[in-house]
Specification:
- The termini are far apart.
- The protein is flat and about 75 Å long.
- The chain contains five helices and four strands, in the order ααααββββα.
- Strands 1, 2, 3 and 4 form a four-stranded mixed sheet that branches.
- The chain is an alpha+beta fold.
- The protein is 39% helix and 15% strand.
């Protein structure tokens, strides 16, 4: 159905159209919206380039080119899962960190309801030091109970909770802060 015909329709006329014609009209409208969106994007880009050129000719600087964030999809996946890595938020360097130990932490079976279903794991990488690298990856098992609407997870050992750094690094930093006047702002 041509767009010229559709733009003159009223709501009453749409309610009287057969389903086949409505589907055709909706497809036409969606195609038109998509084409308009592409045109708007193209015109906005051209408009910005012209503004930058005007500013350049005036002796000013144009809008800087800022690269888009590459981890948009990954961040949205983390939000959906609701995962957290200790108290500092997402560990940006987890991909690059060499793992020295891997421990699995499962939920105690006695703590699980009978209807709990296994839903996978989540990884928590804790950085620690013993003057040999000692990075530990905890694989946290998760279960979901549809009856309770609740997720059950294995627990990190208490000394690792709330941070992406282990107790060895914390004691090292605190000792050096008081004895050698080393700053600790970046670790908190």
């Amino acid at each position: 159905m041509p767009f010229a015909d559709i733009k003159n329709f009223t709501i009453e006329l749409f309610s009287k159209l057969p389903v086949k014609m409505l589907v055709g009209a909706i497809k036409t409208l969606l195609n038109k919206v998509d084409a308009q969106e592409n045109k708007i994007t193209e015109l906005s880009s051209e408009n910005q380039k012209l503004k930058d050129e005007i500013n350049r000719l005036k002796g000013e600087k144009g809008k800087p080119d800022i690269a888009k964030n590459k981890d948009d999809k990954k961040d949205s996946d983390d939000k959906k899962k609701g995962g957290k890595n200790g108290g500092r938020g997402k560990n940006k360097n987890a991909k690059e960190i060499e793992i020295h130990n891997t421990e699995e932490k499962d939920v105690e079976k006695k703590d699980l309801p009978k209807d709990a279903q296994y839903k996978g794991t989540r990884d928590v990488v804790i950085q620690d030091i013993n003057f040999n690298l000692n990075n530990t990856k905890f694989i946290i098992h998760k279960y979901y109970s549809p009856f309770l609407g609740k997720v059950f997870e294995g627990q990190l050992p208490p000394e690792y909770k709330g941070s992406i750094f282990g107790p060895g690094i914390w004691s090292f930093v605190i000792q050096f802060h008081y004895e050698a006047r080393m700053t600790q702002n970046l670790l908190f």
